[in-house]
Amino acid sequence: MKQFDYSLDFKNIDFRQHPELYRVGKGEQGVLLVEPYKGEILPLWRFKTPEIARESSSK
Questions:
Q1: Could you check whether the bond before residue 43 is cis, i.e. omega within 30 degrees of 0?
Q2: Other CB atoms closer than 10 Å to residue 30's CB: what's the count?
Q3: What is the pLDDT of residues 5-16, one digit of tens each?
Q4: What is the model's pTM?
């Protein structure tokens, strides 16, 4: 498996237009750095309450 390439210019690359540049890292590392995925996933990635977040993080 190729490693995720952290040297790419994530702010200026649209990986939908250039999917060949995206490399799946261990455990999908890096997915929250790249657009358009970052902009689509991050708004949905949250817990309703701090208690739910603490419970999840303790697992």
A1: no
A2: 20
A3: 889 898 898 888
A4: 0.49
